[in-house]
C-alpha cells in the first residue's frame, strides 16, 4: 500500500489550491464542521464525526445479506479514525483480472484488481468518497463459509483491532473489507496484495541478491508488526515464512486466523503450527504465550540469514520434536554478524525475551 500512498501524494501535488481545500485546509481544520481533527498531514487528515455520518447515510444502500457481517462493518465504519482503517462491504462485481495464487486447508487465495479501490477521503463537492482505483488485492476465499463462522469473524476482528491500534503500521496486512462469491456464496476476505509473495518464495527467488541491510529491514518490519500484535494483548500463534508477506518496499505479517488474546485459554487439541517454527513448550503440550511467537521470530531470523527453511533435510516428525525440546536448533550460518546471532539465540532460547522497541533498534544497528 505504501507505493499507492506515494502515488496519491504525487497526485495531490498536481491539484490546484482550490481542489486541495475541497478536502481540508493545511492546518487540519475540517472544512465540513470547522473542527480541528488533528490527524494526518495536508492530504490525509480524517474527521471521524463527519465521515461517520457519511458512512451512516450509506447504510441503507448496501447489505451483505448476513446480519452479523453487516453489524461488524457498520460498527467499524462508525469508529474509523484514519483512511487506512476503512472497512466495507465490497460487491464481487468490483473485482476483475482474478487469478489463482494458492490453495490451503482453509480455502483459496486469488489475486484480483479492485476496480473502485479503497477510500481515501470524502469529496465535499461531489458528495462521495474519493478512492484510489484499480488497486491489486488478495481474495481469501474460505471453504464452506456460506454460513459464516465465528472463526471467520474472529480473524476479521483481529485485523480491525490491529488497524485501530495506536501502534498501527503497514507491517500488518490490511483487510479492506468482505465480499461474497455470488455463485458459491462463499465469503471472501479482501486483503492487501503483497507483490513479492511470502517470505519463503521471496528468499528462494532473491536470496543471492539479499544484503544484510535489506535483511535487517525485513526483520525490523516483522518485529514492528509482531510488537503491534503483542501491544494489543494478542498472540499470533502461527508465525512462519508462509505467513510473512513481502511487498516492494516492506514486509508484513498476514494470516491472523489463529490470532487470540494472550490471556485466552487454548486446549491441547487446538495447538496448531508448522513444527520447525514451534516453540519447545508447545511441542511439550503447554499453552501458547507471546513468548511462543518470539521463538518463531528467532527461527525467521535464521531463515533470513540462510535463505533456507529450517531443518529442510530432516523429517518433521516426533523425533524432530524431541530434538527441538532438547535444545536442537538450526546451525548458525558462517558470517552471521555477532549482534544478529546474539538476538537470534535470545529469541529461540527456552525462555525467549519479548520483542520490545529497544530490541528492534538493536537489530537495526
UniProtKB/TrEMBL annotation:
GO molecular function, one term: protein serine/threonine kinase activity
Protein kinase domain ranges (all copies): 95-365
Annotated keywords: Kinase, Transferase
Record-linked InterPro entries: Kinase-like_dom_sf, Prot_kinase_dom, Ser-Thr/Tyr_kinase_cat_dom, Ser/Thr_Kinases-Pseudokinases
Protein name as catalogued: Kinase-like protein
Amino acid at each position: 500500500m505504501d507505493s499507492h500512498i506515494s502515488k496519491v501524494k504525487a497526485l495531490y501535488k498536481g491539484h490546484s489550491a482550490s481542489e486541495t481545500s475541497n478536502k481540508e485546509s493545511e492546518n487540519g481544520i475540517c472544512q465540513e464542521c470547522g473542527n480541528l481533527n488533528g490527524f494526518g498531514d495536508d492530504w490525509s487528515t480524517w474527521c471521524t464525526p463527519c465521515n461517520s455520518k457519511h458512512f451512516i447515510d450509506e447504510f441503507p444502500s448496501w447489505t451483505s445479506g448476513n446480519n452479523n457481517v453487516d453489524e461488524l462493518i457498520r460498527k467499524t465504519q462508525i469508529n474509523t479514525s484514519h483512511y487506512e482503517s476503512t472497512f466495507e462491504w465490497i460487491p464481487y462485481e468490483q473485482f476483475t483480472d482474478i487469478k489463482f495464487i494458492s490453495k490451503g486447508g482453509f480455502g483459496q487465495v486469488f489475486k484480483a484488481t479492485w476496480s473502485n479501490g479503497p477510500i481515501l477521503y470524502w469529496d465535499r463537492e461531489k458528495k462521495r468518497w474519493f478512492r484510489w482505483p484499480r488497486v491489486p488485492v488478495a481474495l481469501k476465499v474460505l471453504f464452506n463459509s456460506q454460513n459464516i463462522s465465528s472463526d471467520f469473524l474472529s480473524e476479521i476482528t483481529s485485523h480491525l483491532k490491529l488497524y485501530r491500534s495506536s501502534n498501527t503500521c503497514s507491517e500488518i496486512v490490511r483487510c479492506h473489507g468482505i465480499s461474497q462469491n455470488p455463485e458459491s456464496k462463499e465469503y471472501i476476505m479482501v486483503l492487501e496484495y503483497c507483490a513479492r509473495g511470502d517470505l519463503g518464495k521471496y528468499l528462494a527467488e532473491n536470496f543471492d541478491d539479499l544484503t544484510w541491510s535489506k535483511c535487517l529491514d525485513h526483520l525490523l518490519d516483522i518485529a514492528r508488526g509482531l510488537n503491534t500484535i503483542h501491544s494489543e494483548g494478542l498472540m499470533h500463534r502461527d508465525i512462519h515464512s508462509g505467513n510473512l508477506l513481502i511487498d516492494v518496499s516492506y514486509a508484513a505479517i498476514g494470516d491472523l486466523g489463529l490470532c487470540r488474546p494472550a490471556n485466552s485459554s487454548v486446549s491441547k487439541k487446538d495447538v496448531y503450527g508448522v513444527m520447525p517454527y514451534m516453540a519447545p513448550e508447545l511441542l511439550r503440550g503447554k499453552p501458547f504465550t507471546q513468548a511462543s511467537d518470539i521463538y518463531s521470530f528467532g527461527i525467521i531470523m535464521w531463515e533470513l540469514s540462510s535463505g533456507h527453511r529450517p531443518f529442510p533435510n530432516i523429517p518433521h516428525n516426533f523425533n524432530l520434536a524431541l530434538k527441538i525440546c532438547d535444545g536442537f536448533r538450526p546451525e548458525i550460518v558462517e558470517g552471521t554478524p555477532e549482534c544478529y546471532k546474539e538476538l537470534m539465540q535470545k529469541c529461540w532460547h527456552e525462555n525467549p525475551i519479548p520483542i520490545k522497541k529497544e530490541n528492534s533498534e538493536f537489530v537495526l544497528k
